[in-house]
Design goal:
By secondary structure, this protein is mainly α. It is about 75% helix and about 0% strand. The chain has one domain (about 5-115). The longest helix is centred in the first third of the chain and has 28 residues, at about 5-30.
Length: about 120
Amino acid sequence: MTSRGVLIVHTCAFTLFVLASLSSPFLVLWYPELFSGTTLFIIGAFALLMVGSWPVLGGCPFTIWENNLRERKKSGSAYTDACIDHYVLHWFGIKLPNKFSDVLLYALLALPIASGLLL
């Protein structure tokens, strides 16, 4: 796979994650059975796995994979900032505040859990 392929997969996965997270307050109202104890446990375990993998791996696994491929194939230099920060600046010309992407990710991980707990 190329670094561009990893970026495409990463962008699609992140987009689905954002859509699922933002729709969770509505889903909990329309389909409360989706947010049973088992589902909340799975969502919480996934959130812990994602957050817990970053310190172990040194960052987002997709970003590490993409940067390794970029360096190996010489298709661009690796970036050191968060992928969200890098691509928002690259694609839209917007410089995000420091740690904004971290706060955004934690909020998006917490939203489905909070939605289910508030049911």
